[in-house]
Design goal:
12 helices; eleven-stranded mixed sheet; globular; 340 residues; alpha/beta; homodimer
Chain lengths: 340, 340
């Protein structure tokens, strides 16, 4: 198995991506292609003393930055690292792509260059959100921001395959993110989606869930529009950060005994922090593309990249893309036959 | 000033609402009308030994439960506590209403029975979300789940008046909740709303904000669709609860030193918990109604009700409803004159 890592355009620079890749080779014995500025990549490899024949370099001369318009940039910058990686994937020169640059550019390159799976209308991004239990797969967290009802059903099917094949959950419970649990609650979009999910035999639909159910782990998979999912995701990141910052502030402004308490409690707080760390799940999965594409947070450190590569290996090994194709085609057939 | 409290249909029963009201009379010397089952209310008052001539009782014989269809129930149950309270407000028999039952029923009773402010298309619910700084006003958290762009502008204006008149923030900074900070980012709804907010002279618009900005306090007021706001709100409540539950679990499964640490740290943790407690802000404000309407969480305890009554007094004193009317009319005039 060979995985391409686009090392360009991230918050902490090439070093973290190269380090994460080198660690992945040690841990998983996979073959890797580092895509980006070859000279800089070589410098980082030298620093780490990493001279493995399992690591290749693919030189590229362009980068798509975070603030560029994704579709324009992907069309114009033919030698951008993400475009080259997506092309290698299309040409089966690698089995999967991992990236941590502009999410918009990654989505666009995956869709336009690698190509969608047959029958998939819109790709969706799935991410495991930490919480009680083993976390909840939230899909879509930002790919399709004005999702049509049957596109939400496709997202639900794709998220369900992810939960089954990678997280090994049997018949994952799927919930529709809504503002109330009753079938009659919701906005136009969720009201129209509910009956489609209810009668979809490719899914184990449990009904509506609310925002509070995400961290509670009520459902295995929670499906929502990309706008809502992205907002929830970023709000959660911000809130967790704020809670830890306020706790620190509260300790600093307290007396000696509280400070001693904080020192003694450090292991428990660290355990909590690592449990709530989204990086441990290793990136978000772009579902609905012909081949595996994993998108990491722009601020990913080496540890997160290594985990993302681990997830990507599972993504490839378990034939998630083929299973998605098969199930989406089965759903589309039901739809055409008027069975829904 | 006379405030009506609907004591029916809440999670913890009449006792908490009566207790919260009695405490409010002591604290704010306001006149109160308790609306609901008179015999039960009297029993609770007797238990507390509260015999103040500042507390009246208005007997009602019906209740709208959480799972009833709001519009149907409001139309059919003429003697439901929330309907009677809304009618008293319309007839100026009281200056404001506080309730903690079904939010849908409260919204419907307020809109159909008390009536909207002139020029307001759809009421919106505003709530202060705790975080860094003094918290952020999030509007709308659930009234209008398929908001049109100019309805979002009205919500922003109403939220802005709240921040100014009740939280005493001069020229509050208003942000549009979106999936990116650039003007070109968003879904159809936010893309259409951005230019309207930009050219609205009734607002101090700062541009797009993201989910992470809510707890960070980047803006004073964050405006969003009721579906998104409600989801974010419930997700935040669930996440904060999960973080505290996991911390407790982590301490319980740890050694003696961590447990001692947790005991010593308790004051700092309590300080954090109370800082992140949405109840301290005392309920959500239903904006766009002719007179003040405050909606408390269904699980409000006496303390939250007392705070909500405190907020309601500010709501009345500062003529928030009149100011909203004036500013919405000014915006509507600009709109009609083609100034936008």
């Amino acid at each position: 198995m060979k995985i391409a890592v686009d090392v360009m355009g991230t918050d902490y620079g090439i070093a973290e991506l190269v380090k994460g890749t080198v660690n992945a080779v040690k841990q998983f014995a996979c073959d890797m292609i580092l895509v980006g500025d070859a000279a800089k990549i070589q410098t980082e490899l030298d620093k780490l003393g990493a001279h493995s024949d399992k690591i290749q370099i693919q030189n590229t001369t362009q980068v798509i930055e975070m603030d560029e318009h994704p579709a324009q940039a992907v069309r114009q910058k033919k030698d951008a690292s993400i475009v080259v990686a997506a092309k290698m994937l299309r040409n089966v020169e690698c089995d999967a792509v991992v990236c941590a640059g502009s999410t918009g550019a990654a989505m666009t390159a995956a869709t336009l260059v690698t190509g969608r799976s047959k029958g998939v209308e819109r790709p969706a991004i799935a991410l495991t959100i930490p919480g009680m239990g083993n976390g909840t797969v939230l899909v879509d967290v930002g790919a399709n921001v004005d999702a049509k009802p049957h596109q939400l059903v496709q997202s639900a099917i794709m998220g369900s395959v992810y939960a089954e094949k990678i997280l090994h959950i049997l018949q994952p419970k799927v919930g529709l993110l809504n503002i109330g649990s009753e079938e009659t609650k919701g906005n136009e979009q969720t009201l129209a989606t509910f009956p489609l999910l209810k009668f979809c035999r490719q899914l184990n639909f449990m009904g509506n869930v609310e925002g509070k159910d995400i961290a509670a782990g009520t459902a295995d998979v929670v499906v929502c529009d990309g706008f809502v999912g992205n907002t929830v995701l970023k709000f959660g990141e911000g809130l967790a950060k704020t809670i830890f910052a306020l706790l620190k502030e509260s300790v600093i402004s307290s007396g000696v005994s509280t400070k001693i308490g904080a020192m003694l409690m450090k292991p428990a707080l660290e355990k909590l922090r690592s449990r709530m760390d989204p990086n441990k799940y290793g990136g978000a999965l772009l579902l609905g593309i012909k081949a595996p594409f994993v998108i990491c947070h722009g601020n990913s450190k080496a540890y997160a990249i290594t985990n993302a590569i681990g997830t990507t290996i599972e993504f490839v090994k378990n034939n998630v893309c083929n299973e998605i194709s098969a199930r989406i085609e089965s759903y589309n057939k039901d739809l055409m036959a008027g069975n829904l």
